[in-house]
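User: Design a sequence. Structure:
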């Protein structure tokens, strides 16, 4: 396969991963690489990234696919720079590796760990990359039962190398005679952690390269490329995904507040000022040809958030708390209420900045369980209307966050309708696919006709689309 065909396949893979690359950008990428040449692989990566990645969130998928389609070597071969084609013909795949004896494995493991410790201490990226290749070759594979080739495993490599067990020795070497516990130790720990994470990423990249050789590019691509951050479903988000979501939520909260801000549309400004209008009419013989209005007083709206924090939507509950915490800075007053089968106000828990701490305090201290701890939207809405009758008013935007899975219990549609009628706006963000609404114990049909709009909100991309649809009212 020549470089043109490989570039075309690479662009197709980016599009399959959700990275939008136009034909014009592909032409620009080819021109950029023509200017820098193919001899320097990192320069090729930079040229492609500059012309194809329009947003930072595309970069992880781009780097993963670039390493698959333009690998630095093949098999265990050593790179040949003379041919000027990085990743295409660099080295040759090695044959079936010889099984090492237990004594040989122990000696090799000790030698590689000693080299790893020194490379981590020096911060030598080239040495770390070479150690990742050697470690994968030595410990990362196992025969694939009933199939040709081998299977590759990241955990086998990391278990053999155990980089985390080197932290104490690295700290001692970095700090020397300095006292522990101070700023120097914190900086050293952070530096070591960053280098270890970098080595682990190199191991993962090497494993993906070997898998692509064994199984083919497209088969590896499907499992290697993670969804873009704005396409990660809230119900399946990991802790690492939630950390990344935190960075995206705050700009979205500002835009949501802008869309929900109440605006009075009484003439060009505020209400009619009768006294000033009569006074102005004296100049025209008492005929009020020009009306006078009081100045408009802009204000931030109030927000009430009702969050389902039951176990079935635990990851979505983490996201809703993130969103509510971000919205708190954009509204004049934000009140948050959590519920499972009863409702309690959780606004007091949003003062912190640590999400895990907020969730643990809510689980320990909030009164969210009334009967059996299973979702009961009907009883939760009844308790909310009874305990907090003044929470929702004409300046309030009501935002409900939950999947409406009610365990076949009463919906309490009447008190919920009164709440929505009292509010200026009432929106419901549902993390389930729309095709699931109304199936099983879903009560979406009972609630969707009451709120202004029930929106499918499974990821940040859909939340952003919902915010863009909202018009200032």
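Assistant: Done.
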């Amino acid at each position: 396969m020549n470089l043109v065909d490989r570039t075309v396949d690479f662009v197709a893979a980016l599009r399959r991963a959700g990275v939008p690359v136009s034909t014009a950008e592909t032409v620009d990428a080819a021109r950029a690489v023509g200017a820098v040449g193919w001899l320097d692989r990192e320069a090729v990566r930079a040229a492609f990234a500059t012309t194809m990645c329009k947003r930072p969130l595309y970069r992880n998928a781009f780097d993963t696919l670039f390493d698959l389609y333009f690998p630095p070597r093949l098999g265990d071969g050593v790179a040949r720079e003379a041919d000027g084609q990085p990743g295409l013909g660099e080295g040759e795949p090695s044959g079936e590796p010889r099984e090492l004896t237990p004594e040989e494995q122990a000696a090799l493991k000790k030698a590689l760990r000693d080299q790893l410790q020194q490379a981590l201490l020096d911060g030598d990226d080239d040495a770390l990359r070479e150690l990742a290749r050697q470690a994968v070759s030595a410990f990362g594979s196992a025969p694939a039962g009933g199939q040709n080739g081998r299977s590759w495993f990241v955990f086998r490599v990391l278990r053999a190398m155990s980089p985390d067990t080197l932290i104490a020795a690295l700290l001692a070497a970095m700090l020397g005679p300095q006292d522990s516990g101070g700023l120097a130790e914190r900086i050293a720990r952070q530096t070591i952690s960053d280098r270890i994470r970098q080595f682990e990423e190199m191991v993962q990249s090497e494993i993906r390269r070997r898998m692509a050789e064994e199984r083919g590019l497209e088969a590896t691509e499907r499992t290697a490329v993670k969804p873009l951050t704005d396409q990660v479903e809230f119900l399946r988000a990991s802790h690492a995904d939630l950390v990344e979501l935190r960075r995206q939520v705050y700009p979205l909260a500002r835009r949501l507040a802008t869309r929900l801000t109440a605006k009075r549309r009484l003439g060009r400004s505020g209400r009619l000022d009768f006294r000033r209008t009569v006074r102005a009419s004296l100049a025209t013989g008492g005929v009020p040809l020009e009306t006078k209005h009081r100045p408009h007083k802009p204000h931030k709206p109030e927000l009430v958030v009702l969050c389902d924090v039951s176990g079935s939507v635990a990851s979505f509950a983490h996201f809703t708390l993130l969103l509510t915490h971000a919205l708190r800075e954009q509204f004049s007053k934000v009140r948050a209420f959590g519920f499972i089968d009863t409702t309690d106000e959780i606004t007091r828990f949003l003062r912190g900045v640590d999400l895990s701490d907020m969730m643990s305090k809510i689980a320990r201290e909030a009164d969210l369980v009334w009967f059996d701890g299973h979702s009961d939207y009907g009883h939760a809405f009844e308790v909310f209307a009874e305990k907090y009758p003044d929470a929702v008013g004409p300046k309030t935007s009501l935002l409900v966050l939950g999947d409406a899975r009610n365990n076949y219990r009463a919906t309490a549609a009447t008190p919920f309708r009164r709440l929505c009628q009292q509010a200026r706006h009432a929106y419901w963000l549902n993390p389930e696919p729309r095709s699931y609404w109304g199936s099983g114990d879903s009560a979406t049909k009972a609630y969707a006709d009451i709120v202004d709009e029930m929106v499918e909100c499974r990821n940040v991309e859909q939340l952003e689309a919902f915010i863009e649809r909202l018009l200032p009212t």
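Residues 239-263+300-469 form a domain with the Rossmann fold fold (CATH 3.40.50). Residues 7 and 456 are 36 Å apart (CA to CA).
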